[in-house]
């Protein structure tokens, strides 16, 4: 039997915290490991028992979510952190991804989308709401010194939009194997190993249009 995805939540709003815990614990294949109201309370516990995925509010009292991501990356670089917030401004997205978050979601998503995002983060993906992904991708101009070819930038942009290999292949009228080859080249040029790392590197260095 497959082990459930263990999820931790750092959220200062008790109603949102409880709602997310109920959704996760009430869904097959998921388990809420623990909830905390602040990074300061969470960090000592996370030193001894880390969840598979951590959901964290960006606007926490005391240590902010963005600061917390940096501390968590020091503690456990492999822990996927997904930011949750009511805001969808580009600067918050940019700062949280550069700090090490793998994804960014607006609060109030339907339960099925929240659970899908947790699954995607657990699988090494970069969950983002479509609106946020498009805004991030389009808000930064492509660097003139990008190491990527035009086609590789197209593929990377679609990766940032959350598209899978097949949909990328269909949109660009190429084979899935060609998409895989482009992604292999992108990873090598950016010196990354996962989609999440590629997305963060692309946004940080403005490699996509």
Secondary structure: elements and pairs:
Elements (H helix, E strand, L loop, with lengths): L4 E6 L3 H12 L4 E7 L2 H8 L6 E5 L7 H11 L5 E5 L4 H10 L3 E4 L4 H12 L7 H10 L10 H11 L4 H8 L3 H15 L4 H11 L4
Parallel strand pairs: 1-2, 1-3, 3-4, 4-5
Helix pairs in contact: 3-4, 7-9, 8-9
Explain what this protein looks like in three dimensions.
The protein has 209 residues and is an alpha/beta fold. It folds into two domains: 5-134, Rossmann fold, CATH 3.40.50.2300; 140-205, Winged helix-like DNA-binding domain superfamily/Winged helix DNA-binding domain (Arc Repressor Mutant, subunit A, Orthogonal Bundle), CATH 1.10.10.10. The chain is 52% helix and 13% strand. It has ten helices and five strands; from the N terminus they run E-H-E-H-E-H-E-H-E-H-H-H-H-H-H. It has a five-stranded parallel β-sheet, with helices on both faces. Helix 3 (65-75) links the parallel strand 3 and strand 4. Helix 3 packs parallel to helix 4 (90-99) and helix 7 packs across helix 9 (176-190). The protein is globular and about 45 Å long. The mean pLDDT is 84.
Work out the strand percent: 5-15%
* Spatial shape: globular
What helical percentage do the residues reach? 40-55%
Protein structure class = alpha/beta
The separation of the N and C termini measures 43 Å
The tally of beta strands, per DSSP, is: 5
Q: Write out the strand line-up for the largest beta sheet, numbering strands in chain order.
A: 2-1-3-4-5
| DSSP summary: helix tally | 10
CATH class type of the largest domain: Alpha Beta
Spans of at least 5 consecutive residues whose pLDDT stays below 50 are: none
Indicate how many domains the architecture comprises: 2
């Amino acid at each position: 039997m497959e082990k459930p995805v263990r999820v931790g939540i750092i959220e200062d709003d008790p109603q949102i915290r409880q709602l997310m815990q109920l959704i996760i614990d009430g869904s097959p294949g998921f388990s809420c490991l623990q909830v905390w109201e602040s990074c300061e309370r969470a960090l000592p516990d996370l030193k001894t028992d880390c969840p598979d995925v951590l959901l964290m509010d960006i606007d926490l009292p005391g240590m902010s979510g963005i600061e917390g991501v940096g501390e968590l990356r020091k503690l456990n670089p492999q822990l996927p952190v997904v930011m949750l917030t009511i805001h969808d401004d580009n600067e918050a997205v940019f700062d949280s991804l550069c700090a090490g978050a793998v994804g960014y979601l607006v609060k109030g998503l339907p339960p099925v989308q929240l659970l899908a995002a947790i699954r995607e983060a657990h699988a090494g993906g970069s969950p983002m709401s479509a609106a946020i992904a498009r805004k991030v991708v389009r808000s930064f101009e492509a660097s003139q010194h990008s190491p990527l070819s035009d086609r590789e930038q197209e593929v990377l942009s679609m990766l940032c939009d959350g598209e899978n290999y097949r949909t990328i292949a269909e949109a660009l009228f190429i084979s899935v194997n060609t998409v895989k080859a482009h992604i292999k080249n992108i990873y090598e040029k950016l010196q990354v190993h996962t989609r999440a790392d590629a997305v963060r590197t692309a946004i940080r260095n403005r490699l996509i249009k």
